[in-house]
Design brief:
The complex is a heterodimer of chains A (about 80) and B (about 475).
Chain A: H1 3-17, H2 32-36, H3 40-54, H4 69-76
Chain B: E1 11-17, H1 21-32, E2 37-40, E3 52-55, E4 58-61, E5 67-68, H2 70-78, H3 81-85, E6 87-90, E7 93-97, E8 100-104, H4 108-117, H5 123-134, H6 146-153, H7 158-172, H8 180-193, E9 195-198, H9 201-215, E10 219-221, E11 226-232, E12 235-241, E13 244-253, H10 257-264, H11 272-279, E14 286-294, E15 306-310, H12 317-321, E16 327-333, E17 345-352, H13 354-358, H14 362-381, E18 391-397, H15 399-406, H16 419-430, E19 434-436, H17 446-466
Parallel strand pairs in B: 1-2, 1-13, 2-10, 7-15, 13-19
Antiparallel strand pairs in B: 3-4, 5-9, 6-9, 7-8, 11-12, 12-13, 14-17, 14-18, 15-16, 16-17
Helix pairs in contact in B: 1-9, 1-17, 2-17, 4-5, 5-8, 6-8
Bound molecules: flavin-adenine dinucleotide.
Flavin-adenine dinucleotide binds near residues 22, 23, 402 and 414 of chain B.
Chain lengths: ~80, ~475
């Protein structure tokens, strides 16, 4: 997956979690949490969904890497290279 | 629909023991993720403490007094939209005690207003207090107690301490000596938007959850008490119930954490270090309740949805636990609770100690239950004069009742004190494939806490099974 595809994947998962999420003015370098009103339960959902779709195991200590859209792409790119 | 236990298969991916809100949610999430799940419940119906019973046309709810707004998002994400859409606000919360009498919507805005106008606290102090409590996390420092937190912001103001603490003590059994973070997290959840309930009653909620479990393919058996969780070579192999063994890769116990460790699993499955931690777990208190049904065709005035009442001079968590406590909450269920069923019921709830009831001889036990009912009727009369004439059913539940139905150690209503959380969270590191879900650590209890904890544990289980 390319970095762009990974970002789309993340947005798609967030949309499943919250169908009212507004991506219009999303800044990819700002925390998703603040911009989309996500809480720690939502991040757990993202982790679980990534595992379900791509057999990815993300350890708890790595959760901070999922903070912004861009940091998601950077962290996930090597893991999803062949996906 | 539950299936007979004789029809279960020989193995499943996961067996969930117990169908409280934590167990139900774990079963649902894991089945939704594609695992084969068997759910076993000892009682004849699902729900655990989220339950109800019927008498003479009345339906009495046990634990539907109120939950925080967070349930809306949680039910939408982890159950379904229909369940979410039945959540409605309870707008009229009443406090009545020798220190103050007032009505509130129980949210930050109204509390700020009351603290400012009734208790004469500068709004800047109130705002600072709210900022501190709403910023609390479960991994923050636990050394500060709730008493110290209150003393810092409202020194010597036992009236304010009561206003802030009494509802939370009823909600989860915590006291002024518990870590301030447990207070901050639960209190802030409520302050977000107020107190909410489930329109249609607990029976409707559990029915909708059972339908969702079925859609996701969970196999459900009721009237099955699991006797043993089988562990071999440090790994879970399955369970034993009614003399039958069923295999599984993982077992999620929604039985109490102490039950899970001491009664369901063999001691030698755990390390000494873990057992030491488990031995330090303090069990939370239990409850007494009195259920009162208003005759068909009769009605009562609207005096509020949830009444925190007391004739004790000051708030004192020990007084709240006394068998003859002067403090109780009344939940009043008007016809709006179950639209279409034109009935009124009232449930008085008190915190209570198991020992105070378990040690009574049968005759004395029945006599104490009768006086509990009489005291509740007398106290209710202050708000609804002459109400006893309209009541055609009264019944009491004690810690023994809660113990009988849930099997929980000492009939605990709200699981364990804070230290239980760590033991519950780390049990799968002791025995591969063994997980615990259910009220622990004060913050993981209540309807919202139990459901959210179910989601957290599902994530652990899913991760284990896919690794
Ligand atoms: C009187 C009272 C009032 C309450 N009011 C409220 C309220 O207004 N709002 C709120 O949010 N919360 C309230 N609560 C708390 C809330 O009900 C609980 O925190 C929550 O429902 C607990 O869910 P749980 O997952 O821990 O499981 P529980 O509800 O404790 O259920 C555990 C289940 O496991 C089953 N089980 C145990 N052992 C076995 C075994 N060996 N084999 C098979 N099954 C087994 C039991 O039968 C039970 O069904 C109240 C609690 C009480 C007691």
């Amino acid at each position: 997956m390319t970095s762009e595809e990974i970002k789309n994947l993340i947005l798609e998962i967030i949309e499943d979690i919250d169908d009212e999420a507004d991506f219009e003015s999303l800044n990819p370098d700002e925390p998703l949490r603040d911009q989309l009103d996500l809480d720690s339960m939502d991040f757990l959902d993202i982790v679980m969904e990534l595992r379900k779709r791509h057999q990815l195991q993300i350890p708890e200590e790595d959760y901070p890497n999922l903070a912004t859209l861009n940091s998601c792409a950077v962290y996930l790119e090597p893991l999803l290279r062949n996906a | 629909m539950p299936v007979p236990f004789t029809q279960t298969k020989e193995t499943y991916d996961i067996i969930v023991v117990g169908s409280g809100l934590g167990g139900l949610t774990t079963a649902n999430r894991l089945a939704y993720c594609g695992h084969k799940v068997l759910l076993l419940e000892h009682h004849h119906r699902l729900g655990g403490l989220a339950t109800w019973f019927k008498r003479r046309g009345h339906i009495f709810d046990i634990s539907l007094h109120g939950f925080p707004y967070g349930m809306v998002k949680t039910c939408k994400k982890y159950w379904n939209k229909e369940i979410m859409q039945s959540i409605v606000q309870l707008k009229n919360i009443v406090f009545d005690n020798p220190q103050f009498s007032l009505q509130t919507t129980f949210d930050r805005e109204d509390f700020t207003h009351i603290l400012e106008t009734v208790f004469k606290i500068p709004v800047a102090t109130v705002n600072r207090f709210f900022t501190v409590v709403s910023g609390m996390n479960f991994y923050d420092d636990q050394t500060m107690t709730t008493r110290e937190l209150f003393e810092e912001f409202f020194p010597g103001r036992s009236d304010i301490h009561r206003f802030l603490m009494e509802p939370i003590t009823y909600a989860n059994g915590s006291t002024l000596e518990d870590p301030a973070i447990t207070y901050g997290i639960v209190f802030s959840n409520f302050m977000n938007k107020g107190v909410f309930t489930f329109e249609g009653g607990t029976d409707k909620l559990i029915g909708m959850m059972a339908d969702e479990l079925e859609r996701n393919g969970v196999t459900i058996c009721t009237n099955v008490k699991v006797d043993k969780i089988i562990v071999e070579k440090g790994k879970v192999r399955g369970i034993e119930a009614h003399g039958k063994t069923i295999g599984s890769k993982a077992v999620v116990s929604n039985s109490g954490i102490t039950n899970t460790i001491y009664n369901l699993t063999e001691r030698n499955a755990f390390s000494e270090e873990f057992l030491e931690k488990a031995a330090a777990i303090r069990i939370n208190n239990s409850s007494c309740q009195v259920y009162m049904g208003i005759k068909e065709g009769e009605g009562i005035n609207d005096v509020g949805d949830l009444l925190f009442t007391s004739t004790a001079a000051e708030f004192d968590s020990t007084e709240l636990l006394d068998r003859e406590t002067k403090s109780k909450t009344f939940s009043i269920y008007y016809p709006k609770t179950r639209p279409g069923l034109n009935r009124y019921t009232i449930v008085a709830s008190m915190n209570s100690r198991y020992e105070d009831w378990a040690e009574l001889e049968e005759d004395r036990y029945q006599e104490e239950k009768r006086s509990l009912i009489a005291r509740s009727l007398r106290d209710l009369d202050r708000y609804l004069p002459g109400v006893a004439q309209k009541i055609d059913w009264t019944e009491a539940a004690t810690p023994k009742t809660f113990n009988r139905y849930t099997l929980h150690t000492s009939g605990t209503s709200f699981g364990t004190k804070f230290e239980g959380l760590d033991v519950s969270r780390s049990i799968f590191k002791e025995v591969a494939g063994l997980f615990h879900v259910g009220s622990v650590g004060i913050i993981m209890s209540g309807w919202l806490g139990a459901i959210n904890y179910g989601v957290i544990v599902s994530n652990d289980v899913d991760s284990y099974l896919r690794s």
